[in-house]
Amino acid sequence: MSDQLIAHRPAALAQGAPRRTAPRRGRIRHAVSATLLWAVAGVFMLPLVYTVATSLKPAGEVFTSPPTLWGSEIRWANYSDAMNYLPFQRFILNGLLVAGLGTAVVLVASTTAAYAFARLRWRGRDSVFLTYLMTLMLPQEVLVVPMFLLMLNFGWVDSYQALVLPWAFTAFGTFMLRQFLLTVPRELDQAATIDGAGRLRIFWSVLLPLARPSIAVLAVFTFITYWNSFLWPLVITTSVEEKGTVPLGLSLFFSQQGSQWSLVMAASVVSMLPTVALVLLLRRHLVSGIATAGLGGR
């Protein structure tokens, strides 16, 4: 019996050898992937690091030859100077107001429209949705002039509602949430109906909690779009220092007397903080939302 075990041992060892090398190959593959990801992340982080470093340089050391990452001293006063050089606090408050209201309107409009297109049956539903979806092919530059004339007829030029409402009813959010709602089994609606829930109750208590990750993704995208919008606020706003947003405020640092690059960089760093805070606040929902939003449908 012992001779048979000894005879079979080399074969068993030979069969077990590939099993030991497989985890090693997996670890090597994981290490290579992690290294590449960190390298790509480092490349994308370079502009941010340069912006922060330049915001802390003295004004005369921004364009030195040879270029240096850090200046001879760290000037934290650049941030206070940037806030006092222009009414930048006003621009930030205006940006938060416009982006916050715009995000709220987009979420309400997109969730209700997505529910109507995904769960309700009515004549011409698919044709209306296709027509609505075709508006995504129109760039903003094409719509600026007719939208401005419409705001002029309403008397909304240089107003907050003109900054918020014209772009709050786009098809992007409706399409993304509709695709997610199509993946939710209709048996949930039927079960809620048997329990006595109406359509509004099903929408509020059943579907919205399930769509929370997708709603978080839409909220982040919408907030960033409103926050970074430059063309439409430039066209519709006449009193820039009173109703201007952050991109318009940053443009005021460039004048015929020259550009205060250290102050521009300091203001740019401050302008990134609200979007970073929003992403960190919703980070738990973003990963699952990006993985599932807009990928389903049946």
Automatic annotation (TrEMBL):
InterPro entries: MetI-like (IPR000515), MetI-like_sf (IPR035906). Gene3D superfamilies: MetI-like (1.10.3720.10). The keyword Transmembrane helix applies. It comes from the Bacteria. Its main location: membrane. Keywords: Cell membrane, Membrane, Transmembrane, Transmembrane helix, Transport. The chain crosses the membrane at residues 28-50, 91-117, 129-154, 160-181, 202-227, 261-282. Residues 92-282 form the ABC transmembrane type-1 domain. Belongs to the binding-protein-dependent transport system permease family. This is Carbohydrate ABC transporter permease. It comes from Nocardiopsis mangrovi.
